[in-house]
Structures are given as structure tokens and as C-alpha cells.
Amino acid sequence: MSPVPSLAIVGARIRTLDPALPNASAVAIQGGQIVHVGDDNSVRALSDRSTEVVDGSALHVVPGLTDSHIHPFMGAIRTLGADLTAARSLDDVRAAMAAERAKAGPDGWVRGWGCSYEPWDGPGLRGDLFDAAVAGQPAFIGIMDGHTAVANGAALARAGIDGPRRFAEAAEIVCDADGRPTGELREWAAIGLVRDAMPELSDDDRYRLFVETFTRFNRLGLTGLHAMDGTPQDLDTLRRMEANGDLSCRVVQPMWVKPEMGRDDWEPLLAQKDERGRRWRCGVAKFFIDGVIDTGTGWLIEPDTHGDGRRPFWPDPAYYDEAVARFAGAGFQCVTHAVGDMAVRRALDAYKAAGAAPGVRHRIEHIELVDDADLPRFAAEGVVASMQPLHMQWFHPSWAERVGPARAAKASRARSIRDSGATLALGSDWMVATEDPRVGMAWAQLRRPGGAPEWPPVTPDEALTPLQVLEGYTTAAAYTVGEEAVSGRIAPGYRADLTAFGADPVDCDGDALPRLPVLLTVVDGQVVHRAEA
User: Fold this and answer.
1) What is the mean pLDDT of residues 239-251?
2) What's the CATH code of the domain at 361?
């Protein structure tokens, strides 16, 4: 007999994604697990006065949504300052930065984030273009992809940057013909020089920011996160959040392996493999093998129209192969950022050579371009494709111009990869794009923004069906991290992670998805978000 549930939902419309019982009206939960799924009478019969019974008459319940590519801690920090995601001109950028300067005060750093490349078309990425707006105070703007930034002269001076430098990774301080920095910073090592010069938040302020961020994720229906950067210190944060009862999402947290690390630097990361709590775990290694198309740092089989795209992020690809082999051999799941078609190919090659521990599935992130010859390798070699539909919002026009018409016609081949038999997991890449899964679900279906039919869709033949999209955030996300036996479905014995909308996201029109109300979010049997119907 099933135990008395602590939480029950009755009278709902439940899409379980369980082939044994695809639809139900009630679910019972105890001890963080689903103990029964069925009709209202069967769940009420299990319940007693101690059970919290939720009236589900307005609820359309699906398995809890997981974002399979997100930067929860880095994103919380790097989205401080002016939100420039809507800026379409340099005047927009200047106005937002001037307003932020007023908030920062006369002695503070002025920060902006999420800016697209569009405002900089023509003059290029230069710090002097917004220097007057911030009255010469140190100022820094993060470009939306996270791989590029712009700093003004005061910020460069604070960081001690007065000319070009050499880096172990394919990073660059862009300089003019006279060797003077323009303010454009490409890739993590160069950007980090300025970020390291900024004042840091206190530990308590950081912690509050993280808790607020996770609470916002819950309001959007998220129950699980596959984080995409990490250090041993992030595991300490997860321990603290869980001990305080503040960890309101499940988190798979990787260790970030960088090209400048020596082999001895790998050892502290390797030691974290089996670290875990109730709602979080490690066991994942994250790599970047290229950058982004827009700045010519994506690694391509053939150069882009500017002659760029010929260099990997790891200057010595053989060292990347060695790192993958070392972490894979230790039982880690390996995750590689690979945007360009050559990057995808080399990641597949490295995984094939390294092998994987039993039950471990390596994965590749982004896959904005993939060569025809490599597309079937995902399924054949057991590699998961993890894609972020929201990236398509930047494929017009600079991205398409860079790759040329032939490659642009085969952009973000989500449907082709899935139809090949590969597992396709979906995510946002927040802080790069909005963390709202409803917006990402609309993009995956429509290949354009929901509610914007005038927007030309990106390679519309690659659109996913609504059910395939939901699977990308649920069953495929669980399979990606080897948790398909306990997560991604609503079935007895599975984790009690649920998302309830005001309508079925599978039946909902794609243009209405971004406005679909999230009414209830349950993580580990605990209600972490509840809204009025």
C-alpha cells in the first residue's frame, strides 16, 4: 500500500510523459517522491488530514522543467547593472549607461550587460563611444554572448591594460594600428582582466543574490538546472544553500577545465567527481573549444566571409584531447561548448577517442553549425546534443553574413539532429539569453519569437513539434545526465518535481507560450512557487 502523501494534486490535467499512463488527473507525493498517479478517487483514498491537497482544476501539470544549459551563479553576478538586451543603437546604450551611472554614484563602476552586436555595427566595439555617457568613470559592457566585452579607458587603466597581451587561450585585447587598446575584449582571459579589477560583492550579498535568482527560476517553472561553469567554491555555495533550505532547484554542477590549466591544476577538480547533496551533484567537466561566430572565434571547417574562424579556443587541440581523456577516464561526463562545425567535429573526435564510463553520456553544447558528415555521429556515438533555441535571435544579420548563405541555410539543425536518433536537450544559456523557458519553447517551435509573426523564421524546416520541445526540457534533460529512471516523468518512484501551467504547453499555440501562466512549481515534493489561477 502506498504511504500517506504529504502533498496531493487532484482535479488537474496531467501530462505524465510516462508511456504506461500518459494522462491522469491526480498525483500523490511523499518524501520527495511520487507515490501514486491516477484519478482523483485513488489519490484521495490515500490521503488523510495530514495531506496538503491542492485543487488542480486550473492546473495543467507536466514533469518539472529543466534548463539544460544555464549559468546560475555567474549569471546572477554578471547581470548586475544596466540591462542592454533591448538596446538597438549606440544612443540606446549611452542612455542606459548614463542612467546606470546615476545609480552607481560618482565613484562607482558603471556596468551594463546583454548588449547585442547590432549597436556597434559600423564604428566597431570601442570604449570611447560611451565614455561621455558615464562621465569618464570606469565602465564595462558585457556583450550578449558572454565571449566579448567593451571597457572604457578608465576601466582599462584600473585593470592595468595599456596594450596587447598573449594568452594561453585564444583571447585578445583588441588594439588599433598604434597598439592602443580599443576597449574590445575577446574571450574569457581578456575579459577577466577587467572583471578582476571591479569591486566584489560581499559574501552575504552574493548569497542573497543567488537565493533571489533561484526563486525567480521557480516562478518561471524551472525545477532543475544543468549549470555550465563551476569551481569547487560553487559546490560550497550549493552546500550552504541546501543546509539553509534555500536550494529551490536541482543543480548538476560542472568543473570548468581551462586551456591555461596545467595537469596539476586538474587534480583538485578531479577530486570533486562524487561530491553531491540531496538536490545537487558534480561529476561533470566543462570545456570550451571555440568562441562565437560574430567575432570570428567560432571554429569552422572553412573560413567565414571575413577570413576568420580558423583557430580553436584551445591553442593546442591535442591538449584538449588529453584533458577530455583524463576527465572521461575518471568517470566524468564531458561537456564541450562547440559553436562552429569544426569545433563540433573535434569534440566528437575527442569523445570517441576518450570513451565514457558506464552510464555516462558526453554532450556538445550549442551546435550552431554541424557538417552533414558529422550529424549522424551524435546518435551513432552516443553523444547528446544540447541546443539553445534562443541563440537564433542573433542569427540576423551579422551572424548570417559571417557564415555565408550556404551555412546560414543549415543553421541550428535541431530537428535533423533529433530525427537522426540523437538525444536533444534544450536550455536557455542564461545569462546570454532570457532564462524564461516559455520563451525558449516558443523559439524551438516557431524558429522566431513568440508573438512576432512578422519575424522571418530561422531555417523553419528545423522546427520541433510542441511535444518534442517539452521532451527537450524534461525526459531528454533527465537522460542527458543519466537520471532517466528517476526524473523527467510523472510516475511512481520518480522525483516529485512538477511544473503546472494555466494551459497545456503542448496544446498551446506557440505565439501564446511566452505569456502562459506558471501556476505551481514543485521541487522534491516542496511547493516552491504558487500563483493565483
Assistant:
1) 98
2) 3.20.20.140
> End of a domain among 146, 180, 195?
195
Rounded average pLDDT over 424-431:
96
Backbone angles phi, psi at 15, to 5 degrees: -100, 105
Pairing of strands 82-83, 148-151: unpaired
Burial of 323 (0-12, 13-18, 19+ CB in 10 A): buried
SS3 content of the chain, % helix, strand, coil (to 5): 35, 20, 45
Domain-embedded: residue 453: no
Q: Do 246 and 134 fall within a single domain?
A: no
Domain count, the chain: 2
Specify the residue for cell string 542569427.
395
The CA distance from 362 to 354, in Å, is: 10
Q: What is the pLDDT of residues 170-206, one digit of tens each?
A: 899 999 999 999 999 999 899 999 999 999 999 999 9
With respect to residue 167, please indicate whether it lies within any of the assigned structural domains. yes
Contacts for 533 with CB less than 8 Å, ≥ 6 apart = 58, 59, 502, 517, 519
- Report pLDDT digits (tens) over 66-117: 999 999 999 999 999 999 988 999 999 999 999 999 999 888 999 999 998 9
**Residue range(s) defining the domain that contains residue 120:** 74-195
Q: Which phi and psi (to 5°) does residue 402 adopt?
A: -65, -45
Query: Residues 471, 342: one domain?
Result: yes
Q: Which three cell numbers stand for residue 106?
A: 560618482
316 lies in the same domain as 389: yes
Any idea what the CATH number is for the domain that residue 132 is in? 3.10.310.70
- Domain assignment present for residue 509? The answer is no
- Does residue 403 sit within a domain? yes
Give the C-alpha distances (Å, rounded to integers) separating 320 from 224, 230, 324.
Answer: 29, 18, 6
Is residue 372 exposed (0-12), middle (13-18) or buried (19+ Cβ within 10 Å)? Answer: exposed
Q: Which residue has the cell 584551445?
A: 314
| pTM assigned to the model | 0.93
Domain check: are 233 and 354 in the same one?
Answer: yes
Output the CA–CA distances (angstroms, integers) from residue 65 to 91, 265, 463, in the order listed.
Answer: 38, 35, 20
pLDDT for the residue numbered 188: 84
Q: How far apart are CA 74 and CA 355, in angstroms?
A: 30
